[in-house]
Amino acid sequence: MSESVSSLMAPPSTWEEFTEGLWKRNPVFVMVLGMCPTLAVTVTAMNSLSMGIATTFVLAASCFLVSLMRKMIPKEVRIATYIVIIATFVTVTDYAIQAISLDLYEALGAYIQLIVANCLVLGRAEAHAARTPPVEATMNAIGMGLGFTLSLVMIGGVREILGAGAFFGIPLFGEHFQPWVVMVLPPGGFFVMAGWLLLFSILRRRSQMKADAASVEAADALKTSGACHGA
Amino acid sequence: MSVEIRSAPHIKADSGVVKIMRNVVWSLLPICAFYIWQYGISALASLVVVTAACLAAEEFFLRLGRQSGDLGDWSATITGILLALTLPAGFPLWMGAVAGFVAIGLGKAIFGGIGHNLFNPALVGRGFVQAAFPTAIATYTPSFMPGRFSEFIPSSLALPFMTPADTTAWAASHLDGVSSATPLARWKFEGVLASNWDLLTSLSGHLAVGPSPLLILACGAYLAWRGYLDWRIPAAVLGSAALLAAALYPLNPQHFPEPGFVLFSGGLMLGAVYMATDMVTSPVTPRGMWVYGALIGALTVIIRYSGGLPEGVMYAILIGNAATPMIERVTQPPAFGTAPTKETKA
After folding, report:
1. Into how many domains does chain B fold?
2. What is the DSSP letter of B333?
3. Which chain B residues are within 8 Å of A196, Cβ to Cβ?
4. Quick one: average pLDDT of B216-231?
5. In chain A, N or C: fewer CB atoms in 10 Å?
6. Residues 6 or more apart in contact with residue B178 via CB below 8 angstroms
7. pLDDT value at residue B157
8. pTM for the full model?
9. What is the ipTM of this complex?
10. Does Transmembrane show up as a keyword for this record (chain B) (predicted)?
11. Do B64 and A202 touch (CB under 8 A)?
12. Which of A178, A181, A198 to probe the B interface (max B CBs under 10 A)?
């Protein structure tokens, strides 16, 4: 409610574009996009962080380019064009990770190449970058990428702490730690993600209820001005 | 003159959620007493901790979700007791608390609380710890150990997040030549069968088993007599398991156990009487109950015979729970007074 009202009143500032992906429209916990890497590579916090950074780079670079060329790309072939742009940056990322750390490259496996199929990247290019100037589009993409990274690290952190008794490879519980086997298996990804989703939706609903109660009067006041605008 | 106009039913039974649940708890008390007699203070601590974890989780999620309901409906207590009875007596208490929390949180609260759950909460909790701690949940100790009322099974008291102590050497130092493996595991991995009478009573031989199937059957019979559980479900579960076992036994007597062993070993009796009959997660149509019970019994035998684990009751019941809505749809009886049409028959 309040969101649509504010977007009617003024276009979002660059700062708002940037923070949108961190919390209000967090790609994983709010928009539930990019589930494939979210569930598959979040066994450790380090893998999650690397995956998040790689995706952020692809997202930011692709959105910048898409936004720059948004008036040149014919509407009929836009998806194919976006995919070519995204695939270019995925290939760059793929080779870069291979050059930086072969261990990490093997741990992430096919999921680096699969960034090209990540609906978050294509979704942001199509829904946002294609209709926004380059600076705003890039800021928004970086924010989305950081939100994605944060979510992945939140999932990967819990899975690593319970599944291996460590955080970013640092042991937390000593040698007698009992690993929770399920956390390093695929079901662990679903359980932890569901737990965070639950927490986020509870928090969102509570703040929504508060905002609704507070905005009843504001909405009444806006009605008159909205009517004038329509006329 | 005042006439009250109401829809049916006009005659009500003096029954309700709280009364049914309270009766189930009462019927579980003899089983708990027997279990404590078998395993001593470890069993008592396990029952208390798991039930307390379930109650704490219930309170927590009721507040978090702002759901209606309270701890006084006894449903979380039943979940806790049943969950503790399915775990090994020496199961680390902290893992038991995790199981209780998951049972209520994942098995019940996220579906909307009492009456809305899709799966039996106790089995969801057990399924989670089965996946998380496969070693600890397969570590049993012999029953009727000397000194069981003054000494904990060492694995019980593992510190939170720490590996439990080894119980095999501990059990061997107390009781020489007694196996810590369950009868099902001994059949599966060693090809040794326990006697049916010992399994049925759980009284002799220091078997690593839960409470006596005979006692569970008796307590279930009380509930069925009072009308708090439908006898069709346990009958269908046990009947289909026995039939399938009897059909398979002649094919390979070396490998397949006789039907009696299948019925009285593991958690089949507890599962058939107390888990499969959960009113929320089982079909309400009489024909559906037979289908549902038969499915669980057959799946149990199939999982035991060809799965990697010796026990399969838990997964069989969870699959049965998942199939319940479909079973109800196809076994819907025609409405009273209407002729069975093609549609309702199908």
Report:
1. 1
2. P
3. none
4. 91
5. C
6. B142, B171, B172, B206
7. 86
8. 0.85
9. 0.79
10. yes
11. yes
12. A178
> Domain of B70?
16-139+141-180
Residue numbers in A near B92 (CB within 8 A): 178
Establish if B242 belongs to a structural domain.
no
Please state, rounded to an integer, the average pLDDT across all residues of chain B.
87
Cα B333 to Cα B323: distance, rounded to the nearest angstrom: 18
Pick from A173, A187, A202: which is nearest to B131 by CB?
A187
Confidence of residue A3 (pLDDT cuts 50, 70, 90): very low
How far is C-alpha B202 from the geometric centre of its chain's CA atoms? 17
CB-based burial label for B9 (10 Å; 0-12, 13-18, 19+): exposed
Nearest CA-CA partner of A58 in A111, A116, A109: A116
The residue whose two tokens read 């294509």 is A122
Tokens of B5: 């106009």
Q: Do A178 and B131 touch (CB under 8 A)?
A: no
- In a domain, residue B250? The reply is no
Residues of B with CB under 8 A from a CB of A: 64-65, 92, 95, 106, 110, 128, 131-134, 136, 158, 161-164
Note whether A193 and A39 are within 8 A (CB): yes
Boundaries of every domain in chain A: 2-170+180-230
Q: Closest Cα of chain A to B64: distance in Å?
A: 8
Contact A107, A48 (CB under 8 A): no
- Tell me the CA distances in angstroms from B145 to B32, B204, B274, B296, B308, one per residue in order: 17, 11, 27, 34, 29
Is the pLDDT assigned to residue A10 strictly greater than 70? no
The residue among A4 and B132 whose pLDDT is bigger is: B132
B103 token code pair: 């049972």
| Distances from the Cα of A128 to the Cα of A32, B55, B62, B327, angstroms | 17, 47, 40, 46
Is residue B106 domain-resident? yes
DSSP calls for B122-153: HHHHHHHHHHH-HHHHT----SS-TTTTTS--
Is residue B112 domain-resident? yes
Considering only alpha carbons, which residue of chain B is nearest residue A203?
B64
Phi, psi of B149 (to 5 degrees): -90, -10
Q: What is the dihedral of CA B278, B280, B284, B288, to 10 degrees?
A: -70
pLDDT band at A8 (very low <50, low <70, confident <90, very high): low
Q: Which residue of A has its CA nearest to B164?
A: A178
A177 contacts on B by Cβ (under 8 Å): 161-163
